[in-house]
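U., I forgot to send this yesterday:
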Amino acid sequence: MALIISNSYYMVANMINEKQALESFMARCREHGLRITAQRTAIYKALIDDRSHPSADMVYRKIRAAFPNISFDTVNRTLSTFVDIGVLKVTESHNRQKRFDANTENHHHLSCVRCGRIVDFESREFDELKIPDGIRDRYEVLGKRVVIECICDACGSNSRKGGRR
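Result:
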């Protein structure tokens, strides 16, 4: 099985560049009647610039330097709105904290159960997984994404040094 693991946010196949992502974001906001404000743009830009799949708290801490009066609630509500209009996706996290992904293209995730790191990867085999008939018959399937829980290379190297595999 060939996996393409992306160490850089924009190395994911078919990812659009930052300028195109911002243009698409603005168009989507207009489609949904959302004003394009400096705060909303900064929140979105913080996500497309960050490949770590940040939480609302991480985004809040990052943009607070530029917007010292912004509240955590504003950032959190804005992220939820962005998910609702389809410019972000909520990503799985082993600690149940919501993490956000600006890469809305089809891809899958490796999720480290030790440090919480989430890494994008692509796999044609996973893309082509068949949805079981019992699910397709009862539910409207909107998408599919595979999450592999793992111990990442950084955390794993610590345990391998001690002889554990």
